[in-house]
């Protein structure tokens, strides 16, 4: 699995297996096992997903050594503030059955109960991540869904710099300003829901032709788009065949012309992020 180096010196695989909405016990465990069997070494979960214990079970059943897996979780919205965040990190470690996380993120910057004091709430939650980092409970720390105003508030208060911003990124949702500021601060960009445009693209003859050009599926083209843009896509499925297919994206590269076509593609889907 290809990887990139984060600003703290750690290596992160460039393709992740996401587990959002994977709450059926068998599907979640089997999905993690299938992903690791296919070659994925980057697993993404969150306290909010309610499946950390299932993800941990899948990792153990896979037979892949823990040290070969890059494991991410995220602070739930109801765990903002210093003490609550610290306790939640311990709870995540226990649920996952591991003594460290490779990456822990603040899941959302503005959450219920902290609509008015989100600025201080994020600072205190980040303090907890820094404490966990210094204790060796998390090896890297970062952010999720932070836009420019949230970054402008938090970054001046960081003793330890965030290494990642995980945001929605795909053709039609480019988040140009947030991407630019995140990169300026040294953060890698993780792309959640990178396959969102897929249903619409399947009906677009020009994009079907683009996929045919590379002898790939449109889903594979979308994942390659993320990687060629320098993002780390997080793709999810509970189908072993689809999990394998999504991994088979390292034997081609999109041309600059085709990247531009996808950059300019107009998406008709929802814009919630």
Characteristic key phrases:
single chain; alpha/beta; 10 strands; 15% strand; globular; 273 residues
Structure, explained:
This protein has 273 residues and is an alpha/beta fold. The chain has a single domain (3-196, 223-253), classed as NADP-dependent oxidoreductase domain (TIM Barrel), CATH 3.20.20.100. Helix content is 41%, strand content 15%. It contains 11 helices and 10 strands. The protein has helices at residues 25-38, 52-62, 82-96, 118-134, 148-154, 176-184, 198-201, 205-213, 218-228, 240-247, 256-263; strands at residues 3-5, 11-13, 16-18, 42-44, 70-75, 103-106, 141-144, 164-168, 188-192, 231-235. The strands form 2 sheets. Strands 3-4-5-6-7-8-9-10 form an 8-stranded parallel beta barrel, surrounded by 4 helices. Strands 1-2 form a two-stranded antiparallel ribbon. The longest helix has 17 residues, at 118-134. It is globular, with a radius of gyration of 18 Å. The chain starts with a strand and ends in a 10-residue tail after the last helix.
Q: What oligomeric state is this?
A: single chain
- Tally of helical segments: 11
CATH topology: TIM Barrel
Strand order of the largest sheet: 3-4-5-6-7-8-9-10
Q: Strand portion, in percent? A: 15-25%
Show the helix and strand layout.
Layout: E1 3-5, E2 11-13, E3 16-18, H1 25-38, E4 42-44, H2 52-62, E5 70-75, H3 82-96, E6 103-106, H4 118-134, E7 141-144, H5 148-154, E8 164-168, H6 176-184, E9 188-192, H7 198-201, H8 205-213, H9 218-228, E10 231-235, H10 240-247, H11 256-263
Parallel strand pairs: 3-4, 3-10, 4-5, 5-6, 6-7, 7-8, 8-9, 9-10
Antiparallel strand pairs: 1-2
InterPro entries: AKR, Aldo/ket_reductase_CS, NAD(P)_OxRdtase_dom_sf, NADP_OxRdtase_dom
Site (Lowers pKa of active site Tyr): 74
Protein name: Aldo/keto reductase
């Amino acid at each position: 699995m290809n990887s990139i180096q984060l600003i703290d010196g750690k290596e992160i695989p460039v393709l992740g297996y996401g587990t959002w909405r994977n709450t059926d016990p068998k599907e979640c465990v089997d999905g993690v096992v299938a992903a690791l069997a296919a070659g994925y070494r980057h697993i993404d979960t969150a306290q909010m997903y309610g499946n950390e214990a299932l993800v941990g079970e899948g990792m153990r059943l896979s037979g892949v050594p823990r040290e070969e897996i890059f494991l991410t979780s995220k602070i739930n919205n109801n765990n903002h503030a210093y003490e609550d965040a610290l306790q939640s990190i311990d709870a995540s470690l226990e649920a996952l059955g591991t003594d460290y996380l490779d990456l822990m993120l603040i899941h959302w910057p503005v959450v219920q109960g902290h609509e008015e004091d989100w600025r201080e709430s994020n600072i205190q939650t980040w303090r907890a991540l820094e404490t966990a980092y210094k204790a060796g409970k998390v090896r890297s720390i970062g952010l999720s869904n932070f836009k420019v105003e949230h970054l402008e508030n938090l970054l001046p208060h960081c003793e330890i710099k965030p290494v990642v911003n995980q945001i929605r990124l795909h053709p039609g949702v480019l988040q140009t300003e947030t991407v630019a500021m995140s990169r300026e601060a040294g953060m890698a960009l993780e792309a959640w829901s990178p396959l969102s445009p897929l249903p619409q693209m399947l009906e677009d003859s020009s994009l079907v032709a683009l996929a045919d050009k590379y002898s790939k599926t449109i889903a594979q083209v979308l994942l390659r788009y993320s990687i060629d843009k320098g993002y780390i896509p997080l793709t999810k499925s509970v189908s072993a065949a689809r999990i394998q297919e999504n991994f088979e994206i390292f034997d081609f590269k999109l041309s600059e012309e085709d990247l531009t076509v996808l950059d300019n593609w107009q998406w008709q889907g929802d814009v919630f992020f």
